[in-house]
Write a structure and sequence with these properties.
By secondary structure, this protein is α+β, with helices and mostly antiparallel strands. Among the domains are: 1-197, ATP-grasp fold, A domain (Dna Ligase, domain 1, 2-Layer Sandwich), CATH 3.30.1490; 200-333, ATP-grasp fold, B domain (D-amino Acid Aminotransferase, Chain A, domain 1), CATH 3.30.470; 746-862, Phosphohistidine domain (Glucose Oxidase, domain 1, 3-Layer(bba) Sandwich), CATH 3.50.30. Strands 18-25-24-20-21-22-23-19 form an 8-stranded mixed sheet, covered by helices on one side. A 6-stranded antiparallel sheet has the order 9-8-7-6-12-13. It has a 5-stranded antiparallel sheet with strand order 1-2-5-3-4. Strand 21, helix 26 and strand 22 (812-815) form a beta-alpha-beta unit. Helix 12 (407-447) crosses helix 14. The longest helix has 41 residues, at 407-447. The chain is elongated and about 110 Å long.
């Protein structure tokens, strides 16, 4: 038979025999930590008590109709069960063992505040503490669910306290907690720990991780005078001390005004006023703090987990009363380190096409190639070969770009700026055309190849080759169409505002609207398709009834019919021309060619008449700008007229270049996705993954090793577990709003709104004039497009070319990142809707469906 009593440090003190609290105290004692002496009353004693008094059937019957997680409903049931225990008799052999162990207890240490506790022979003051078999576990702490009785003296009092502890297994709170945790009533038992009562001068709680912020590198101590019950009960506001664990230095100390404390009495404990001299005094000096911290770190090391530790201080020595794993620690705040010293990073440029955290494959294969292409561009146009002249890297899986702000790099940038600007403006369009032709030719060459006949390594090499050209093409756009469009518009705007514009006349952007570009051509082509459908009555009626997702399923099937076949042919041709426009440059993300449902939604909007006719909108913009131009020209003197016309012509000719340039960034995406799909199918067939799409969740080096194994006829290792883990991590990181600028400091915050903006007004860049109040539609990507209703405000991290069809139905646009010359601003101006960009926090602060006011003139979004 198992014993009823065990020494506190006994090896037999397991969860089953002494419960969670008892097991933890035994472990701490064996590790040499300063735990007050005592003994365990095992679960065997509880079970014998229950058996001898025939309680188990009565307990189960009482719970039969009332087992619930609702506290109020359990109160009568709990009281009934606790009465069973109160009326029960402790078996003779159990009572005798308890009395014998208690008689051997040593005298407790004295207290400065309470003095030496009086005790007659066999009347040592002890703490009698419950310890359930389902508590103080990493997955369920059960903290405070069962009772503890302090300052218990005399054998009879100890036996009565033990019975009350056993009964506390059935408090309403404990029953409800177990119900929520899915623990059945018959699965639990209760042990009891009887320990020397520490008549503490001070006591408190220590967390070896910051319980407020979740930081694992900080430790937090709360401390109050007297016994720790005043803290637990909330009767006193304790001192709070936060310590850096790495160097054991204080981070902050908050000394409270402590009005009451818990002390022992002849019959138990009570609260009494804190002596005046101690009310505002620090409970622990720095030396005591360090001593306690070292104990906490030792306990954390013993458990290999953040710990919640109860401690007491008496007679100049610390005692550890309890230690349990922390079960409800918040996630620590995400750090945003800058990996390169003195670098300034932003979420602009290349990063604007990557609103989400990138997939592991894109981050390890594509991002380094983008960095190399940008450095090559800097060398080509400015003669700068410093590797720090342009940085593309990942921080917390988000892409950032920037510069290392050393004297050498800044000086080089200043020196080369004139040369580079001249080259970009004079040769940028030509360089872009050459890069475009090379890119298109490479993609077309790969499209002709039979992928099934290529080795796995050849497929991966092809992906690298195509994305290298993708990166080189973007670098050409970055050093050609973008600066040309930017410079020409800024030059015209400055001249117009300073020397031409009169009060009441339109803003400079009005003279640039209506430009023909690829985004508009794609919109017109989709509108033309809608107009053709309107001429096919049966097809029109059919499409009106079907949601866009169902239309795509039918297009992918083998459905026949003359009109339907012609529709499939025309829509396929549209995808062939415009299906490479990107929602996101990460090749893990589908493109319209793969997922044309959002495009079909836009088509249905034209059919329903809820989207504006793009021809009419363009014609109206062109007519307005021509009228404004003629009105201005008529009143100008010859010199200003000549300058105005020249700069306007340059700006109007250059305006389409940016949209034409970025529209084709994704030219290689369809082929890259086909090649990775083929490689993914092979790896899935070989058992390395569960699905071909899982290839995006592997790193480039892992894919290369697996491809080599396939080509050598080997059996690749399974990466199922790591893929699942990375998918979960990506979902977690996607909820984060990354800073627009790193490092995060007040100086840089002046140049970009912070993601932690508070208050009822978000600030950003006013990128398209106008003011509107409308319902917000918060969207992360094309999977959310179907939720948007006509007249909604687009709220997104950023918009890319494939988002353009949404603008025809939008009232305004608000983004986390972007600026006055980003895609969002240019398209918003063409559609005549307000835009506020680069708010840093729109997708987090704005709730889907919330009414907001977008003021594109002031660059603000009101959330009220």
């Amino acid at each position: 038979m198992r014993p009823f009593i065990l020494k506190l440090s006994a090896l037999e003190a397991t969860l089953e025999t002494v419960g969670g609290k008892g097991m933890s105290l035994a472990r701490l004692t064996r590790a040499g930590l300063p735990v007050p002496d005592g003994f365990h009353i095992t679960t065997q004693a509880y079970r014998l008590f229950v058996s001898e008094n025939a309680l188990q059937p009565r307990i189960l019957q009482a719970l039969k109709e009332g087992y619930s997680s609702e506290l109020k409903a359990l109160e009568p049931v709990s009281q009934q069960i606790r009465n069973f225990f109160s009326d029960g008799r402790i078996p003779f052999e159990v009572a005798g063992a308890i009395m014998q162990a208690y008689a051997a207890m040593p005298q407790p240490r004295s207290s400065t505040l309470s003095g030496t506790p009086p005790a007659g022979k066999g009347e040592v003051s002890v703490a009698v503490r419950s310890s359930a078999t389902a508590e103080d576990l990493p997955e369920a702490s059960f903290a405070g669910q069962q009772d503890t009785y302090l300052n218990i003296r005399g054998g009879g009092a100890v036996l009565e306290a033990v019975k009350r502890c056993w009964a506390s297994l059935w408090t309403a709170r404990a029953i409800a907690y177990r119900a929520r945790q899915g623990i059945q009533p018959g699965e639990v038992a209760l042990a009891v720990v009887v320990q020397e009562l520490v008549f503490a001068d001070a006591a408190g709680v220590m967390f070896t991780a910051n319980p407020v912020t979740g930081r694992r590198d900080e430790l937090m101590i709360t401390a109050a005078w007297g016994l720790g019950e005043a803290i637990v009960s909330g009767a006193v506001t304790p001192d709070t001390i936060t310590v850096n664990k790495s160097n054991v230095r204080l981070v902050r100390r908050e000394t409270a005004s402590k009005l009451v404390m818990t002390v022992r009495t002849d019959t138990g404990t009570c609260e009494q006023p804190v002596p005046e001299r101690l009310k505002k005094a620090s409970v622990l000096n720095n030396a005591r703090v360090k001593e306690l911290v070292w104990l906490g770190l030792e306990i954390e090391k013993l458990y290999a987990a953040p710990m919640d530790i109860e401690w007491a201080l008496a007679g100049g020595r610390f005692a550890i009363l309890q230690a349990r794993p922390v079960t409800a620690l918040p996630e620590p705040p995400l750090e945003w380190p800058v990996p390169i010293a003195k670098a300034i990073l932003t979420r602009g440029s290349f990063a604007e096409f990557l609103p989400d955290p990138v997939s592991p494959l894109f981050g390890t294969l594509a991002v380094p190639l983008a960095g190399k292409a940008s450095l090559a561009m800097m060398s080509d146009i400015g003669g700068i070969n410093d590797p720090d002249s342009y940085i593309v890297l990942l921080v917390n899986d988000y892409v950032y770009v920037g510069l290392k702000m050393t004297f050498k790099v800044v000086l080089s940038m200043v020196i080369m700026s004139t040369i580079a600007t001249r080259k970009m403006l004079s040769l940028g369009k030509q360089r872009w055309a050459v890069a475009h032709e090379k890119y298109l030719t490479l993609v077309q060459d790969w499209q002709k190849r039979d992928l099934t006949g290529l080795t796995a390594l050849a497929l991966l090499a092809g992906v690298r080759e195509i994305f290298t050209d993708t990166a080189n093409y973007y670098a050409a756009v970055q050093s050609g169409p973008i600066p040309i469009a930017l410079t020409s518009e800024m030059t015209f705007s400055n001249i117009y505002n300073m020397f031409v514009k009169r009060k009441g006349e339109p803003i400079p952007a009005t003279f640039l609207l209506g430009a023909e570009n690829q985004a508009l051509r794609a919109e017109k082509a989709l509108f033309d398709l809608a107009m053709w459908i309107r001429e096919q009555p049966a097809l029109l009626e059919n499409l009106h009834k079907e949601p866009a997702g169902r239309i795509y399923q039918r297009l992918s099937g083998s459905e026949t019919g003359e009109a339907w076949g012609e529709f499939r042919t025309r829509f396929s041709a549209h995808l062939a021309l415009y299906g490479h426009t990107i929602y996101d440059l990460d090749f893990a993300k589908p493109i319209p060619a793969d997922d044309p449902v959002p495009m079909l939604e836009a088509l249905k909007a034209y059919l329903d008449g809820t989207a504006e006719n793009p021809y009419e909108r363009q014609a109206a913009a062109l007519e307005r700008r021509e009228q404004m131009t003629q009105a201005v020209v008529k009143r100008l003197d010859p010199l200003r007229r000549r300058v105005f016309r020249k700069q306007l012509k340059w700006a109007q000719e250059s305006a389409p270049l940016r949209e034409d340039g970025i529209a084709d960034i994704g030219l290689g995406q369809p082929q890259i996705r086909r090649m990775l799909a083929e490689l993914g199918r092979r790896l899935t067939g070989a058992g390395a993954m569960d699905s071909p799409d899982d290839i995006y969740w592997l790193k480039a080096g892992e894919v290369e090793n697996l491809a080599a194994t396939l080509d050598q006829g080997g059996k690749p290792s399974s990466h199922t577990a790591v893929v699942a883990e990375r998918k979960l991590h990506w979902q977690k990181m996607r909820k984060i709003v990354p800073p627009n600028v790193l490092p995060r400091n007040p100086l840089l915050a002046r140049f970009a709104p912070r993601e932690d903006q508070t208050g009822d007004t978000l600030k950003g860049s006013g990128a398209s004039a106008g003011r509107v109040r409308a319902r917000a539609c918060v969207m992360r990507g094309p999977e959310d497009f179907s939720r948007m209703q006509p007249g909604d405000v687009i709220v997104a991290v950023v918009t890319t070319p494939a988002w353009t069809p949404l603008f025809a139905r939008a009232a305004a646009v608000v983004t986390d990142i972007g600026g006055p010359l980003s895609h969002s601003s240019i398209v918003a101006r063409e559609y005549g809707i307000p835009a506020v960009l680069g708010t840093g926090a729109a997708t987090r602060r704005i709730q889907d469906g919330q009414m907001i006011t977008v003021d594109g003139n002031a660059g603000t979004v009101s959330l009220k």
